[in-house]
Amino acid sequence: MSNDPISILRQYWGFSSFKGSQENIIEAVLKKQDVLALLPTGGGKSVCFQVPAMAQDGICIVVSPLIALIHDQVNSLKSKGIKAIALTGGISFTELDNLLDNCLYGNYKFLYLSPERLQQELVLERIRQMNVNLIAIDEAHCISQWGHDFRPAYLDCAKLRNYLPETPIIALTATATNKVASDIVDNLEFSEPLIVKDSFSRDNIAFNVIQVEDKKYKLRELCQKTQQSIIVYVRTRRITQEIAQYLSYNKCSADFFHGGITQKEKQAKLEAWLNNKVQVMVATNAFGMGVDKPDVSLVVHYQIPDCIENYFQEAGRAGRNGQRAQAVLLTNKMDEELLKNQFLSSLPDIPFLRRLYNKLNNYFQIAYGEGAGQKFQLNFNAFISTYGLSSFLSYNALRILDQHSAIALSESFSKLTTIQFICNKEQIFDYLESYKNTNTIVQTLLRTYGGIFDFETKINTVLIAKKSNTTEARVLQVLEQLAKDEIISYESQHNDLELTFLVPREDDLTINVFAKQVGELNRTKVEKIEGILKYIDTTDICRSKQLLKYFGEKKAENCGICDICLGENQASFNTQTIQLQIIKALQTKPLSSRALIAHLDYKEEPILRTLRILLENELIRINSKNEYECR
What span, in angstroms and rounded, lies between the C-alpha atoms of 590 and 625? Predict the structure, then answer.
């Protein structure tokens, strides 16, 4: 095999030349220089470490954050005839031992693993014995506490520097501010690295923010106008199903994708979308990472992302073929308030951390100065119910205590009980007549959770017990009975989590060790929320200019294709004229916003803005049918 990079690129990837800074990066790696590569989504990051690894004897260690991404890249390499191994979850010690032996003696070129694997001494010891030609840290922004996706296990990547001091490291990411880039260099202990940053500019993508009341209708309209592949991003598993069903009902070819479906289902759904048997994939944000589909012509964010980094990375999955594409963020003022409530109100401050840590110790009756190394089973729902704590705040607080090594949590912490009614309402009434002892709990479930007939729904069994004036054990018993009688589908994840106290109880002193850091991280999260909201609300600066400025890049020219450049969000319309026409239309009969948009010869945004003005001035009102009418 030739060790010439361009020959390798041509032989395995089918390209005759490198793009952007790929060639400079590869040359630096081959000279044993550390590299930080900041390349845009679709910029060919994997080639930057795969080609130089193929050009040398030995194996390349690749640290990657997502199992799906690891599988995609390993399968892609295998399809090219390149030997690659993945260390993923669920493998036995014997299998792990055998896989590591294969890396040592089997002439493999790539070993992919998650950062958590670097916490295993067996893995580190075997890596030290390998002939490692390169260490690649993919999605390297995860190593920075100031990044949008900080993952504490990524800090263990620095161990590889200690075990393999002569091996160069390449860190790659598509979303890093200057502060995050500096943090990556420091954490990986780079010495005189090559730092490469290609322009993040995506001139073929029209970035649009659309303020709209009826988001479903607008989404359907966008999908029906688009001929090629589409990704719709939402924040929850349930909404993926809801939106996919809505689009399918309205004659759009759509499916959903999220982390809760089986690996077999994921593969089938992905293949159908990749082969254009399904046009629209409604998904949570991990979808698309590592997936090479160049003909995505529309990416829609149905809900506001929690930061510009996530938005830009996900939007960048459009137009990889260089053809004109759209990235649309659908939003309204209610969405902005929901975002603030969801993310900002669930950030535990230092007083709350102290309070929760104190309650945790009291709950397990740990004396001052004791507790280090002790393990307990914690029923999370029962714990927060005992002390009247917020579930969101407490969940996040426990995660913070875990990240800062005050406690260690089991991996199954976030799993909850899910149910879905799989019979119709008449069958339920008949069932309750026969099994009247289940009546109270079933009715409480139906009153507490909407959509429980349509989707798998997470439930809080402690809350149901409290509302039903019974015990959690009785609720679980009824759920098991309902599942056995095929009234519900029921997936039970035990509420207990394994919790280990890592340091002696010292109350406030324990929290003070990392209090300043937590405060700074909270401020960073607030800044990120404010950043995405500012992007949405700024209507006088080109969208591309705003995005590139966030990542420290200046753009001289306007893009000419975003909603702002096209004047669709600017207030260059006669408000008074639109007000008169709206009132005239409403004097005839009440109308919905959609009917008014269809009736008036103006774009949607100025009509909606004028409706808000009329409502604020109490010239119109909204009736019980959600229609506008004159007062």
Answer: 9
The pLDDT of residue 570 is 46
Q: What CATH fold (topology level) applies to the domain 205-331+546-550?
A: Rossmann fold (3.40.50)
Distances (CA, A) of 206 to 108, 135, 433, 480: 42, 36, 58, 51
Contact 41, 199 (CB under 8 A): no
- Quote the CA–CA distance of 529 and 531 in Å, as a whole number: 5
pLDDT tens per residue, range 67-105: 777 888 898 899 999 999 998 766 778 888 889 988 988
- What's the residue count for the chain? 631
- How is domain 575-630 classified at the architecture level of CATH? Orthogonal Bundle (1.10)
Under CATH, what is the fold of the domain 342-414+497-526? Answer: Arc Repressor Mutant, subunit A (1.10.10)
* Cβ count near 277 (within 10 Å): 10
Q: Which token pair is 396?
A: 């996040």
Per the CB < 8 A criterion, the answer to whether 184 and 141 are in contact is yes
Cβ atoms of 629 and 623 within 8 Å: the answer is yes
Give the Cα separation of 415 and 406 in Å (integer): 22
- The predicted model scores a pTM of 0.75
CATH number for the region 5-197 comes to 3.40.50.300
pLDDT digits (tens, 9 = 90+) for 232-274: 999 888 899 999 999 999 999 999 998 778 878 888 998 899 9
Closest CA to 160 of 192, 195, 203, 190: 190
Mean pLDDT for 281-289 is 83
Q: Which residues of 68-89 are buried (b: 16+ CB within 10 A; e: fewer)?
A: bbbbbbbeebeeeebebbbbee
For 149-177, what is each residue's pLDDT tens digit?
777 778 888 889 889 999 999 999 988 88
